[in-house]
Amino acid sequence: MKKISLLAAMLLVVGLVGGASAHVGDPPGTVYFAFQFEDGSAPSVDGSGDDWAFVPDFYWIGAEKWNLAQRGDGGGDFDPTEADLATFNPSAVYGWNDTANRVYLLVQAIDDYHEIDRVDNNWTWTDDDLEIRWSAGHFEKSEFTGGGELNTEGTNRIEHLFAVPPIPTGEFFFGDYDVSYNVPNGPIMDFAYSFEGVEIGAGASTYWYEYSLEIPWTWTEELADVTFLDLEEGYVLHAAAYLNDRDGDPDVEVFWTTGTQGNNQQQQDLQMAEIDDSVDQLPTAVEGSSWGLIKAGFTK
Ligand SMILES: [Ca+2]
Ligand SMILES: [Ca+2]
Ligand SMILES: [Ca+2]
Ligand SMILES: [Ca+2]
Description:
By secondary structure, the chain is mainly β. It has helices at about 1-20, 65, 290-295; strands spanning about 30-35, 60, 70, 90-95, 100-115, 130-135, 160, 175, 190-195, 200-215, 215-220, 225-230, 235-245, 255, 270. It has a single domain (about 30-295), classed as Sandwich (Immunoglobulin-like), CATH 2.60.40. A hairpin with an 8-residue loop joins strand 11 (about 215-220) and strand 12. About 35% of the residues are buried. The structure holds calcium ion (CA) (4 copies). One calcium ion (CA) binds near residues 111, 114, 245 and 246.
C-alpha cells in the first residue's frame, strides 16, 4: 500500500539526514510529501481545486498539522492553546510534476473575517495573506543566505506573498526576487485564487489559493541566465507555507505556519514523492464535475 511505502521512505529519509548531517527537519523528524502528478494531470492554476480532488489525504497538511506549528501575534505572546479553528482553519497540499519541472501548492483558508485594508501593498502581512517560502537546496540553516541575493546556488530564500483580492492599486503580490520575470503568471510562477462567502470583512469565507513555480537554483538578472532546480523523485527541498489571520483588529495577528519557526524560516523538509499507484489521476480538464461537491472534500 502506497501510504506504507511512503511512510517507510519518510523513516529512511529521516534516518539518512539524521545520520549524515544532523539535519532534523521542521518540525523535527517531519518530512512532508509533494504528490507527484502524472503528465497530463498536473493542475491548472485557476483558483479552483477540482484538479486536486484525487490527491489522497496523506499529502494534505490539515489543520491538525498546522496545530503543531507556531502561531503567535506580532508580540510573540499569543497562547497557541487559545487558537480556535472556528476563527481560522488552514490546510495545504503540495504537488509536483517531473516534465513541467514545477511544484504546485493548493491552500484552503476558512475564516470568519477576511481582512484586506492595507494601503502599502508591500505590507501583505498586515492583511489576510498567504506567504510561500522555498529554498531550492537542502542545506543546513546556517548555510542559507537571505532573500533576493543573485547568483547564489540553492542557498537563497525565495519568498512569494499574496493578499487578495487586489487592493485598489491592483496589487496583490510582493516577493523576492525583484527581477522582471518573478511575477505572478509570468514565465516561472502562476497564481490564482477563488473564494466562497464574504469577500472582505466580517462573515464566513473560504479562500482557495493555487500556485505553481519552476524553482530557480541560481537567480540572475535575466531569465535567460537562470538555472533551475531539476526536480526528481526523492529530492528534498525546503519549504514553508504561512497564513496570517487578521480579523479587523490591527493589534491582533495570528500567524500560522507549517513550520515551527517564524517567518523567513523555510525549514520544512518537502520530498518529491514517487507516483502513487493507489490513485487514478484524472486528466486536468475535468468536464461535468461539480465544483461545489468537490469543494466539500477539501476540508481535511
Ligand atoms: Ca486548479
Ligand atoms: Ca479569523
Ligand atoms: Ca490590515
Ligand atoms: Ca482573517
